[in-house]
Amino acid sequence: MYWLRLAVLAAAMGVVTGVLWGQTTASVSGTVTDPSGGAVAGARVALRNALTGFEQTAETGADGGFQLLSIPLRSYVLSVRAPGFAPQEQTITFANAAAQTVAIRLQLPTAETSTTVSAFETLSLVTPEDTGTRGQINQKEIERLALSVANRGLEAVVQTFPGFAQNANGSIHPRGAHTQMSFLIDGMPITDQLTGAFANAVDPNIVQNVEIFTGNIPAEFGAKVAAVINVNTKSGLGVDRPLTGSTAVSAAGYDTVGQVTQVAGRRNRMGYSGLLNTMKSNRYLDSVSLDNLHNGGNSSRGFVRLDYQASDRDVFRVNFLLGRAPFQLANLRSQHANGMNQRQELGDFSTAFNWVRTLDAASTYEMNYSVRTSSARLRPSAGDTPVTATQDRRLTTVTLTHRYATVRGRHNIRGGIDVQRIPLRERFSFGITDRGFNDPGSEEYLATLAPFDLARGGRLFQFAEGGTGGFYSGHLQDSIKLGDFQVSLGVRYDVYRFLVDETAWQPRVGASYHLKRTGTVFRASYNRLLQTPQNENLLVSSSEKSQVLVDPEIRGAGGAPRIRPERQNLMEVGVQQSLGRRFSVNSSFYHKNARNQQDVNNFFNTPIVFPLQLSAIRVNSVESRLVMTPWKGLSGSLAATHARAVSTPPFVGGLYLGNGNVTLLNEGPFVIDHDQKLSLQGVMNYAHRRGFYATLSLRHDSGLVTGGADPAVVRADPDYADLLPYVNLLSDPPRTKPRTIADVVVGYERVRRDRKLWDFNVQVTNVTNQTALFNFQSAFVGTRVVQPRTVGARLRFFF
């Protein structure tokens, strides 16, 4: 009944208002004829973008017709090949979701046409329509990445682009932020923390293509926009059979086993696709020690997409996304010896309805509403040490959407309004179980914790509250083509209503200039952004009741802490340059300054985090990505990032139990753990025409900022002493030591008459078996160890 009430509420509100997200794919259909106008059956139609690697193909039917779907909004080369005819190619640009129609008349071959260089080969390797940093990766490239059998999710794909600092359990820091990212799954916004420890991540297997926005964020995106990850999933409308699919089974070290089954099909105007992914492992999360103690878990993820093309103008879509993950919490040695057996269970369920109507050749209307819930339960055990805790939280997001987009001459206009409701329920309890923790004779003793010292006859701290927030927005943006200039003008207005009330106007402006004779694009942009607080544990972190657990030096004058949205200014300049016919490099510099910085603090190496706020943050960064387009089976990319991030206290919100170094950080500006001098991510792919393929992935991280522990104290601590060689606690600031991790996948794909039959590959992660840390005793993420060398294999059958 709870879900029924939410669905009815969403449907009723969708009649009158909505949120604008999504509308970022298009379609094209057409006919191929011979010089006399007769239909050409069996012609091969291909749509490609050399820089992004996007490619879709189709074969014309008996009537010469074809259709291509789920195309990201960019410029492409459309090519047609048919025996006995000259190849034909043309450029085509998709500015909005309006379905395009083309008529292609093939010509007989001549000496001149047979020697014409392919437009695909000579197409400029730059994107002058982009006025900010934007990336894209598609299904084929994702499948060939060296992802481990127990990969965390889509974050493992996103971190191959610049601007993302890698952390534990699949977590990534986008452009100096903690995890302030939005995922859009076919237009459904997800702003939860999607990592293995906090929520079920997005399964890479459902992806058709992914767009990544980190610079000049379009005005249609809001809430959490340090990065926007726009995911278009696989549609059954692009399949030419009633049933097709694959089943893959995999196994790897640490008793990891898994299976992925996918199906898709089409009957007339109805298409469907679905996925079921199950996995278990005895190294479910990144370990807190070299011993990998008490770290087993399993996950199940499912996805269903239904498409109905009601007419040439109307397309309807329904999505269902769900996941469940019960797992153990990794133990330190002392905890394991004490019999600690804490367990966590994550769950989520989402459903979304979408309607796109083509109004005319240049205009579309889109309506989308969705309901998503995520939950987390932490179960304690009798052996918990040094504290015991329980958690039961549920976050629901109801999103309602409408959008209008049109192209008028040189103007590409999009606009609309946003409405979102966020019911939240939280339960949390805490008690001290170790007499050595908060000893009355120690310098760190907090008298306010004494009532909750179970080892001395105290009671559990108990918290249980609920609330509902609201987020309302409107936006208007126009992308204007002025000769070799591209100008993007946007404005967004947000209203945030939860524990605090905030409003903000946000201009989003950018421009690019294409110097065609050198293949160069210059760009610059300015964005004002409002980043909303993390919703998970927001109530307990902002409660006056819970402040008795916080050191008075951090708590300040008392009263209920109010975590306010982050107000940010983002300025970016960049240049993109084509290098010959195979390479392109895209570089940028950005400066970000913000008030009310959003972050979280970690609760004793557990998946529990509490949102907090710092007074300000300043970030300067240089990023670059070199792309090599396919050549004789080889392709690849190299991403580089240098980032400097300095935060200014005081802290607001959060619970800092066991985080003694927070008191030192509260004294003045400090370099936060998002800061890293250099990260490099290289990917090299090789695909042989006979089906053999290989991928090498290399990642170098110079080291994130850690907690400021005393080396002598660490050396005397049996839980952490053997980690001391992998962290430099004497540097200023202290950092994990540099690491370079290599992953390899080698495989073979069997194809017959353009149909895939089976696929087998072997994966090796951390080939050199390097011992390294993601972080160490950090107030923000705790301690986590990089996974040692692990060998895995996958066998997949297609049907």
Q: Count the beta strands.
A: 41
Structural class: mainly beta
Q: Helical percent range?
A: under 10%
Largest sheet: 22 strands, antiparallel, barrel
- Shape summary: globular
Task: Tell me the Rg in angstroms.
Answer: 27 Å
Name the average pLDDT: 89
Fraction of residues in β-strands: over 45%
- Poorly predicted ranges: 1-23, 113-122
User: What's the assembly state of these chains?
Assistant: single chain
Number of helices: 10
Separation of termini?
39 Å
Topology readout:
Elements: H1 2-14, E1 25-33, E2 44-48, E3 55-59, E4 65-72, E5 75-81, E6 88-93, E7 100-105, H2 111-114, H3 119-122, E8 134-138, H4 139-144, H5 155-158, E9 164-166, E10 172-174, E11 181-185, E12 188-190, E13 207-213, E14 227-233, E15 244-252, E16 256-267, E17 270-281, E18 297-309, E19 314-328, H6 333-337, E20 343-360, E21 363-379, E22 387-408, E23 411-432, E24 461-482, E25 485-497, E26 501-515, E27 520-531, H7 538-541, H8 552-555, E28 566-579, E29 583-602, E30 609-631, E31 634-653, H9 662-665, E32 670-671, E33 676-687, E34 692-701, H10 711-715, E35 727-728, E36 735-736, E37 739-752, E38 755-765, E39 773-778, E40 782-785, E41 790-798
Parallel strand pairs: 1-7, 11-14
Antiparallel strand pairs: 1-4, 2-3, 2-5, 5-6, 8-13, 9-10, 11-12, 13-14, 15-16, 15-41, 16-17, 17-18, 18-19, 19-20, 20-21, 21-22, 22-23, 23-24, 24-25, 25-26, 26-27, 27-28, 28-29, 29-30, 30-31, 31-32, 31-33, 33-34, 34-37, 35-36, 37-38, 38-41, 39-40
